[in-house]
Write a structure and sequence with these properties.
The protein is an alpha+beta fold and about 290 residues long. The protein contains 10 helices and 4 strands, in the order αααααβααββααβα. It has 2 domains: about 120 residues, no CATH class; about 140 residues, Reverse transcriptase/Diguanylate cyclase domain (Alpha-Beta Plaits).
Length: about 290
């Protein structure tokens, strides 16, 4: 990344305009002396800034040229040399060249600043994109695209703060291990994706679906209406009929309510739903 001066941009522009005016507008001798001294001091100050070697070389050339012009102007004030043609023209020539070089340096400084700002903006955009990707990866299941366990517990905290209530559904795929053993892990992954899509298609509006590990899924239903919950489970069984037959699997669902009184202990809610899920699984086997 290019080095750039810490001087404010407005100061750079004002000084650049000042140099041009001092070179083009006639002024009194005392003002010329003051302007020359200020200019030399400013060039020396600029040389202490970290612009990079190329810009600094141009500044040194500007300092040398402008100094020759000032020196020639001082010699021109000596009576014995006042009518010397070379001195009469040299001071203006060298000082104008020095001013031109200074303006050239300021243009390079402005270009450096603009390049640096563009580069920083690009880096900020990349950093924000990377942050978004990392945040999504941290809260999202890579295989199914559903939210993950970390996101679930973050949601529990949010619901506890907002005193929400509803139903938690714990979903497990029966005989999933046999699918991996018989058909391979690639088809097992495919089954997980199909199950995740089935959840997304059937859950009531406002629900959130999670994969918390293996073949275990969680759905947070936004209402504690038992009838709505049973209707959703029925829809889930209907939409997965073909899949269950094709893969020779079953789906077990356990339900547990959540409310302001138990949201502070999400593990107990998950345990209650998990126990209900295993109870339903054992009933189906019987």
């Amino acid at each position: 990344m290019n080095n750039v001066s810490q001087l404010p941009m407005r100061l750079i522009i004002i000084v650049c305009i000042g140099f041009l005016l001092s070179a083009l507008i006639p002024s009194s001798e005392s003002l010329e002396v003051l302007t020359s001294i200020i200019t030399l001091v400013l060039i020396i100050m600029l040389l202490r800034e970290d612009f990079g070697m190329e810009t600094k070389s141009w500044l040194i050339l500007a300092l040398g040229t402008y100094s020759l012009g000032v020196f020639a102007d001082l010699l021109d004030e000596i009576p014995e040399l006042g009518n010397h043609k070379l001195l009469n023209n040299a001071d203006d020539v060298f000082m104008h060249i020095g001013v031109f070089l200074m303006c050239f340096c300021f243009i390079k400084i402005l270009h450096q600043r603009r390049t640096l700002i563009d580069s920083l903006n690009t880096q900020v955009t990349k950093a924000r994109d990377l942050e978004s990707v990392l945040s999504r990866q941290a809260l999202q299941d890579e295989l199914t695209g559903l939210l993950n366990r970390r996101s679930l517990f973050r949601r529990f905290d949010e619901m506890a703060i907002n005193h929400q209530r509803g139903m938690l559904a714990y979903i497990d795929i029966d005989n999933f291990k046999q699918v991996n053993d018989r058909l391979g892990h690639s088809l097992g992954d495919e089954l997980l994706v199909i199950t995740a899509n089935s959840l997304l298609k059937t859950v009531p509006l406002g629900s959130r679906s999670y994969r918390i590990g293996g073949d275990e899924f969680i759905v947070l239903l936004p209402s504690d209406d038992q009838q709505m919950c049973e209707e959703w489970i029925s829809d889930l069984y209907d939409i997965t009929t073909k899949t269950r037959e094709e893969y020779n699997i079953g789906i077990s669902v356990g339900i547990a309510p959540y409310y302001p009184g138990n949201l502070s202990d999400p593990d107990s809610i998950l345990t209650q739903a998990d126990n209900a899920m295993y109870t339903n699984k054992n009933k189906e086997k019987a």
